[in-house]
Each structure stands twice: as structure tokens, then as C-alpha cells.
Amino acid sequence: MSTNQWLDLAERTGATAGEAGLAYAIVQMNGLPGWWVPVLIPALAAAKSWCARFVGRPGTASLLSTRRDPASRE
Fold it and tell me: Which pTM value belongs to this model?
């Protein structure tokens, strides 16, 4: 695997872990049952994708700038 692929994998893994942690925190703070965590993770991923549109990244869910995003380089 190239360095760009490793960076892309690290970004995706970190984002998923962050979304899972945030979903767990939301569930714990609101006293909801644990089954809400897997329900919230896709919603948080969609919110990240929505935010990426406003950072100037159409067509990708990456929040990294174009020159720093490993997925935008070949």
C-alpha cells in the first residue's frame, strides 16, 4: 500500500471511531438504551458528509483540504 492509501485508511478509521465515540457519549448523556449507538453512527456520518459540502469538497465526505486529502491524489 502506498503512503496515500495508508493516510486515507487512517482518516476513515479515525472518523468512524470518532463518530462511534460521539454516538456513545450522546447515548450515555441522555440515558438512552445502548441500541441507539448503531442508529446514531450513520446519522453522524451523514452529518460529516453534509459538513464536507460546505468546506468545498463536493463529491467526497472528506473534511481534509484538496492538497492534503490522500483520496484526491493519484
Answer: 0.60
Sign of the dihedral through C-alpha 23, 48, 64, 12? positive
Q: Is residue 52 domain-resident?
A: yes
Does 53 reside within a domain?
A: yes
pLDDT at 67 over 90: no
Portion of the chain with pLDDT greater than 90, in percent: 11
User: Would residue 21 count as lying in a domain?
Assistant: yes
Domain that holds residue 14: 3-69
- What is the b/e burial string over 46-64, where b = at least 16 CB atoms within 10 angstroms of the residue's CB? eeeeeebeeeebeeebbbb
